[in-house]
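Subject: sequence -> structure tokens, single chain

Hey, anyone have a minute? Need the predicted structure for the following. Not urgent.
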Amino acid sequence: MLLSGIQKFSMLDFPGKTSCVVFTLWCNMRCSFCHNPDFVLPEWVKKQMWNLISEQAFFHFLESRKWLLEWVSICWGEPTLQKDLYSFCKKVKDMWFYVKLDTNGRNPEILQKLIEDNLLDYVAMDIKNPLGKFSEITWTQESENPYKESLATLLEGKIDYEFRTTVIKKFHSLENIIEIWKNIYWAKNYYLQNFRPGKTLDKNFEWEGFTEAELLHMKTRLQPYVKNIWIRT
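Reply:
Had a minute. Here:
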């Protein structure tokens, strides 16, 4: 596993539960509003290779926090691109921690295998845009079939999960969000995750997220379509 960083303590991933967050290197997408270009762009990834955290050091850290932590959250850039993800998750589970995976759904095969072998406890999958329009945001020309498969896998309901979309005025109208929802009809939870300005992959990115009032209006309008829709600001 290419581990680029650790957040040693968090209560944000699971309110009321303690966790640490481990960040992986590399992503297949090039979203202009990405806050983590250090983990995405090839020139930055190459630099990060000299500053990786060894698995040995990470598991030594986990061993020392068994009394404090309950969850390990694996995220950034795209963890399913890591060839050792399966064995990494197994080691974490063997230490009796719960495991959360944040993914864009790029590798449905490993996602399915991890779920079938009970090596995950929660999955958060990003949906950038409606199916058929991914490339407008991700700037990648690739088949969307893997993402469709990952959506279908989670919708089977064999694991606790959420879908989420980082919403930005440049890309996401109410009609656009409804179109996304049609791709995940009957999903358990869907989060509108408001974009926050800051360091972005596109240094000239000037678009904004929504106001709280605008998000609440969007949620109200979506209520007939979505049973469990939530807002993260």
